[in-house]
Amino acid sequence: MSAGLGAGGSGQVVAFPGGRGAAQVGFDRDELQRILDLYGRMVAAGEWRDYAMDFDRHSATFAAFRRTAERPHARVEKRPALRNKQGMWTLFGEHGQVLKRGHELANVLAPMERRLLKAVDED
Fold it and tell me: Which residues, at least 6 apart from 23, have a Cβ–Cβ distance to it below 8 Å?
């Protein structure tokens, strides 16, 4: 049997099952810049110390932590399947509660921006 030929010896190329529908969701450069800008300011204010990102077929998630070993203090999720419904952006709080949903990232991050202003004012 020749190299590269299957059991039938026909030499046919078989397409990989699944197609292109299983693409990974990610953040655009502008979106990531806005999220990391907020993260940097929260680190400077002493509120956050670590972060994690997760990407899969359905969503992209950015989680910010006060300490590495605990649950996220805040989590921003991008879920494009909800774009035409309630908005693809969701902000979750420390206990998993939905703090804000929307179509625009800036509006969804607004509660964290206000919390940052309070943290800076307290110092």
Answer: 57
